[in-house]
Amino acid sequence: MPRIYIKDLHSHIGNEATVSGWVDVRRDHGKIIFLDIRDRSGSIQAVIAPDEGMLLETVAPIRPEWVVELTGEVKKRPEKMVNEALPTGDIELSVRAVRVLGEAKELPFSKDESLNFDTYLDYLPLTLRTKRARAIFTVQAEIIRAFREFYEREEFVEIQAPKLIGEDAEGGASVFEVPYFGHTAHLAQSPQFYKQIMVGVFEKVFMTGNVFRAEKHATTRHLNEYTSLDAEMGFIEDHRDVMKTLGRMMRHIAGALRARAAEEFAFLGAEFPLLPDDIPSLKLREAQRVIKEKFGEDATHEPDLSPQHERWLSEYAREEFGSDCLFITHFPMEKRPMYTREDPDDPGYARGFDLLFRGLEVVTGGQRVHEYDALVAAMRAKGLDPDRFSFYLQAFKYGMPPHGGFGMGLERLTARFLGLENVKEATLFPREINRIDARLSE
Amino acid sequence: MPRIYIKDLHSHIGNEATVSGWVDVRRDHGKIIFLDIRDRSGSIQAVIAPDEGMLLETVAPIRPEWVVELTGEVKKRPEKMVNEALPTGDIELSVRAVRVLGEAKELPFSKDESLNFDTYLDYLPLTLRTKRARAIFTVQAEIIRAFREFYEREEFVEIQAPKLIGEDAEGGASVFEVPYFGHTAHLAQSPQFYKQIMVGVFEKVFMTGNVFRAEKHATTRHLNEYTSLDAEMGFIEDHRDVMKTLGRMMRHIAGALRARAAEEFAFLGAEFPLLPDDIPSLKLREAQRVIKEKFGEDATHEPDLSPQHERWLSEYAREEFGSDCLFITHFPMEKRPMYTREDPDDPGYARGFDLLFRGLEVVTGGQRVHEYDALVAAMRAKGLDPDRFSFYLQAFKYGMPPHGGFGMGLERLTARFLGLENVKEATLFPREINRIDARLSE
Fold this sequence. Notes:
The structure is a homodimer.
Chain A: E1 16-29, E2 32-39, E3 42-48, H1 53-59, E4 67-76, E5 91-102, H2 117-122, H3 124-127, H4 131-153, E6 157-158, E7 164-165, E8 177-180, E9 183-187, H5 192-202, E10 204-212, E11 225-234, H6 239-260, H7 262-268, E12 281-283, H8 284-295, H9 307-321, E13 325-329, E14 352-357, E15 360-367, H10 372-381, H11 390-397, E16 403-409, H12 410-418, E17 431-432, E18 435-436, E19 438-439
Parallel strand pairs in A: 3-5, 6-10, 12-13
Antiparallel strand pairs in A: 1-2, 1-4, 2-3, 4-5, 7-9, 8-9, 10-11, 11-16, 13-14, 14-15, 15-16, 17-18, 18-19
């Protein structure tokens, strides 16, 4: 018999059906065995009656996480036995035949035990099977899908950016090195150079892919590898054109999640964000005045925001503007990379922005320098040797339009949509200083 | 005035319009200057008349690849001056105002010069701007889009697989090492382990992302980094279930390209493939008999196909079955990785396949071992220490269904769809032993 998904069993009441899945729970009541069976679509109680010799022999060793195929009659449960908590709680499967598809060893802990986070990470191939983890990564799949959907509709072209990059890495301490046939390559911290080069080809491009940061500190906000969602667009007036597309993208993603992941949001107790048509925007100096006036800390001399500042400003944006998102613009030029464009109307400050989302920076972007001579000068001013960037510089040598873009971490975005404290909860297989899947030995 | 794409100028004949783009060609005819302007949508001739002082001063230095914004009247060209080769060949822009958006230095070669491939690669930020390169990578974007579209419709869940992997890499000489905080990490050659683990979570998964091969040989078929398109599915009967979904996927991609990239195919002189409902399939031994009988080479003792064999078999499949695709199944177990499932009906041979597409292997896949004890034994038989794979093995220890999947190189697939001889022509920024963007110094 063809396999039927558990969520579709209602249309088979009174008939035979075959389901396949994992055993969640086994309960023996005298000679009757109850198995809660889980597949990708839901779960259902299977009832195996006594005195059917062959069947009991097959069923005897079955434990949690065994994979089985069950054939039997789909029956309505007596009124008193209905489990209101499950969509399939009003039916059960009266099993006639059992086939074991995969055996399992004894589990290292009970499935409803609450685990400390390190144990959760130690056993990801098992712990990712919980309803909670499946809900989180279903939402993540919908976010990246909605991201691409938005930029495809806007006629951006998807590109594939390499991760192995040469001597022309942006540099800094947080770059991984890779021995490369007698030379040294690096792992890209972002697809920055390639997306800018490709604006010279397609005008508007987007991409999704892994990026790498050799961060030595372990926090709830940092990862050594994450999925970056990037877009870059030409023929803009200034950074506000990038902010506008980004605002519409956030609303598109939120709309897609409402339409396609409402069940997961409900299960996780997550709320859809407040996203007004115009996302509010403050210059860093204005934001610092807000912090001083509303929260009593004088950070007006700082070149950047602290995590606490980001939380305060998000609180302020929600109260003042009814928005879970807030742009902070015009950071001081000395804190931004060499390709950052200065605002001629506000010298010393960048035509760039961060996007705060529910207390955390999730996007960084802005307008870029597009004139060759200015970019070479900007490199020199940062102490960088333009000769090391000659490949990248070709794009500018041979004509580039005004352009800008942004990069966004998929895991941070997922965590903020779902209100998860630790970004690693929104990362399937997080890389940390002390862990690549298994803990690294001392 | 808002910018109008060149392809949309027909609806503005007799009116003023503003276009922006790159200068393809400049021709001075006496005092009249003709500029061919290119944007992402097309190109058009702009005419700048004499004796308008300010304008000429701005226009005087303009050369190929300068980026300009032009405002003027859209005019029908006299019948005799129509350029039939261009969709906008019947109109021109009579320019009133010019704004320079980006300057360009003198080009290193004329744009219609035919370049040797190394020079093409040396100057990618410029050479990718040709119509040919833009057509190739537009097709590539449509292929990856159609791949995801197909598996989303089939309810596969997208996952993000890490590229930095630990000591439990599949191994072999062709793995890049990465110093990782006093330990050694590796760059993934495929998302194999993660997609199998995630079958235990979502049953059906797909992913797209970069993978890395430290190949020391430079050929037209190999890359040191490429984009891998992967899918993995649970609750299959055998490898033929995977082959079926793959066949439907190929037809979906071909259909999407017909619908969305017909113009690019026409420009590149590429033909849409012949893809029958059932893609023909031969066991390796049957394929070797065909080679012996039809092409006169006795390769029946070989454990694999050579590039020449792949070309012959594709030729045979086209003639015999009217198909540009051909599955080759049942390679000897000793040539396949430890997770490969043996066919119980054909001992010594794998429930696995390669897909040949127009003379080249573009996909490898098959059914996997899903029983813990059998997988541990298979590792030992290949001389691998199961302790090094303990994270991956958890998935099997705690219950896995029969499953299988495949991996496919986006660049090879693009090259085969378009009939490009060198896979590097279908790679935006190819990594080779002697090159990462720039040539590596000796």
